[in-house]
Structures are given as C-alpha cells and as structure tokens.
Specification:
Number of helices: 3
Signal peptide: 1-17
Structural class: alpha+beta
Bound molecules: 2-acetamido-2-deoxy-beta-D-glucopyranose
Strand content: 15-25%
Protein name: Carbohydrate-binding module family 19 domain-containing protein
InterPro entries: Appressorial_penetr-assoc
Order of helices and strands: HEEEEEHHEEEEEEEEEE
Number of domains: 2
Number of strands: 15
Keywords: Signal
Oligomer: single chain
Shape: globular
C-alpha cells in the first residue's frame, strides 16, 4: 500500500517533469501581479474593516483572520511581517508571515512589477493561456498529493518547495567523529515519518502514557539572544524550611513570554513553538518537587514520582512566577526543578546545542 502510493507519486512527478515548466511560466507572472494587488489592498485595511468570515488578510503587518465579520489580528512570530506571496507551483497566492525581503524577492522572481493585467501587449493572451493550464496543473498536483487543492499553505496537503530542508537528506557521516551515528534522513521533511512506526498511535494532542508518534514540526527556534533561563528565589539551594506549613515557590524567569498555555489534554505537543516580536518563546513554566533520600544523594530519581507539580500558567509578575504549596511538605529532603516550555507544553527549543541550562534546580530540606 505504502509502496504503491510512492510509485504513483514518483510517476506523477516524472510525467509532469517536462510540461510543468511551461505551465509554471504561464501562471507565474499572474501570481506575482495578484500578490502585488493583494498587498496593495491590505494597505487600505484597518482592524475595523468589515470582512467575510473565512477571509484572511494582512493588517498593520499582522496576520488577520475574519471571524464573525470582524478581523482578528495575530502578530507574526520572530519579527516577521504578514504578506501575500505568489505560489510557486500552481496558480494563486498565499498569505503568510515572512520578511519584507522574502516577499519582495518572491514577487520579483515572477517578473511582476505592478498589479495591472494590461501592462504590456500580449499579456491578455498569456493570462488566458494561464487560466486554462492552471486548472490542469492544479488538478495534477491535487492528484499526486492525494487531495489538498487549497491555495492556503496552512490547509494544503502539499509540501511547499520553499519549506523543504534539503539538509535532511544528509546522514552526517560525510564528516564523521568517533562514535557518531548516521542521522535518519528524509527528502520530504519527514512528513510521513509516523508511518514508519505503525505500532504507535499519532500523538494527536493527547498525553498517551504508553508513547506515541507526533507529526507536528518543531517550529520557530529561539535565537541565542532569546534563550529562556530561570532561577529559584524561594526556596534557594540548601534552604531549610519548616514542615507542613504553606510556602510559596518563587522563580525569576527571563526570555520566556509567560502566560501562553494550551489545553494540556487536547493540544499536547500539537503545534509548533512560536516566539513573540522580540524573539522570546511564547510559553509557560512548571515546577516539580521530588522527595529524595538526602540533598547529597547520588540515587537516580524516578520521574513518575513527585510530591508537588504545578503548571505556572499566569504571566510572570515583575519577571517572577510564583505558586503556593498549600499545607507545605513533610520533613525530608527535596529537589525542586523548573520545566520551561512552549505554549503546547514541549520543551523550549533554542538555536544552539551548547548553552547553559534553560531550567533551574535547587535542593532543600524541610525540618
Ligand atoms: C476602530 O474602532 C474603534 C471603536 O469603534 C475606534 O476607537 C478606533 O479608533 C477605530 N480604529 C480605526 C483604525 O479606525
Ligand atoms: C495555604 O495554602 C492554601 C492553598 O494555596 C490556601 O488555600 C490557604 O489559605 C493557605 N493558608 C494560609 C494560612 O496562608
């Protein structure tokens, strides 16, 4: 089944290899003109403009979706701006977050310089040719992809050429270091990776205790200037606190825009990490307290066992998150750790492998 689907796709690609270049050329210019026209139209929109439910736009450089006749604006992550872009492989445009330079380069690559359809003689003929060839190109790509005709990249079932990580084809063994193992490789961004582990359910937003396979991409990776970091202010390391009395854990945190948390039962690991306009990950933190034999124990802990756990879902107040441990803790030795995460509960992801800990951990005694 899997094999025959692969053959069908490669045959479709092979069959379309010749004529597809011609078709592409015929709609490319129109896509560029359409993108220019849309970006011009977006300039005239305000957050108060009326709209049709389902309509997408860009307003004040933000991504705008029409809900109940009113635009709802969403800031693009990572300092990006919202723009209409010409599609590359089929007729149409997409509205997405990108840089101004990428928008301009993509439009320039189509040859379009303005929104007009009648800028030069001969355009009318070529655009009607485009119209007829467009539908067959769209139909062909729809068949190859097994559906997903939408021009919106966030609804299409077709992988965009522009997001393919060609580096994933390299298993890394061209530059071996001792003991290094080859990476898994993919030429399609591992989009169907979970099909290689058919014994596992798709994570599907659930916390599946027996394990699962998650198809969501990792998303926006925070820059080294934006790596989250936290430090407990109470209890501090080696603190001694009285038994069975309320105490409040306080943790200073930076470079995490706190207050973003999704439904942990329905959206666990279910969306990519995103960052705010300053580049800080939008997420939340957690604290977990585990009882240990002694503060200097060398016994490895069991992550299924803890005495206190709390998601810190509120926004930090003056850079500090806090939570009260009602009733306190019985006498003993404890380890307190932070778990700093993106909104969908996945661990914070940052630009480089070598960095200081993104979390804090302290040891304290209750007596
Ligand atoms: C949008 O409407 C609100 C409330 O009616 C008004 O205060 C605001 O100035 C309007 N903004 C624009 C950009 O028109
Ligand atoms: C102890 O903590 C609990 C839970 O946060 C709270 O309801 C209670 O009021 C606290 N008691 C005191 C004396 O602060």
């Amino acid at each position: 089944m899997k094999f025959s689907a692969f053959v069908a796709v490669s045959m479709a690609l092979a069959a379309s290899a010749g004529p597809s270049f011609v078709r592409r050329a015929s709609f490319t210019l129109q896509n560029g003109k359409d993108a220019i026209a849309l970006n011009q139209k977006f300039q005239s929109l305000t957050p108060n403009s009326s709209c049709q439910t389902g309509e997408d736009a860009c307003i004040d450089n933000k991504f705008a979706q029409c809900v109940n006749g009113k635009f709802v604006l969403q800031q693009c992550g990572g300092g990006l701006i919202c723009a209409a872009l010409p599609l590359v492989n089929s007729a149409g445009t997409s509205i997405t977050c990108t840089t101004a330079a990428d928008r301009d380069a993509r439009i320039a690559a189509t040859g379009a310089t303005d929104a007009s359809n009648n800028a030069a003689t001969g355009n009318a003929a070529s655009s009607s040719a485009a119209a007829s060839s467009t539908s067959s190109a769209a139909a062909a790509s729809g068949t190859a992809a097994g559906g997903g005709n939408s021009n919106d990249p966030q609804q299409s079932l077709t992988l965009l050429q522009s997001v393919i990580a060609t580096g994933f084809e390299n298993d890394g063994q061209d530059q071996p270091t001792a003991g290094q193992v080859p990476s898994l490789t993919s030429s399609n961004n591992f989009i169907n990776f979970c099909a290689t582990v058919p014994n596992l359910p798709i994570t599907n937003g659930q916390q599946i205790k027996t394990g699962s396979c998650n198809p969501a991409p990792m998303g926006v990776i925070a820059a080294t200037t934006n790596m989250p970091s936290s430090k407990f202010q109470f209890p501090t390391n080696n603190a001694k606190i009285p038994a069975n009395q309320n105490f409040t854990i306080k943790m200073a945190i930076q470079h995490l825009e706190t207050g973003h948390f999704t439904n942990a039962n329905e959206n666990y690991f279910a969306a990519p990490q995103v960052v705010n306009a300053q580049g800080d990950i939008q997420g939340h933190s957690h604290v977990v307290v585990e009882q240990i034999d002694a503060v200097d124990t060398t016994k490895v802990t069991d992550p299924t066992k803890f005495v206190f756990f709390k998601g810190l879902n509120d926004q930090a107040v003056n850079g500090v998150l806090s939570v009260e441990v009602g009733g306190g803790l019985p006498k003993g030795a404890y380890r307190l750790a932070s778990i700093n995460t993106a909104a969908n509960h996945q661990p914070a992801l940052v630009a480089v492998a070598q960095h200081g800990s993104l979390d804090d951990m302290v040891y304290f005694t209750v007596e």
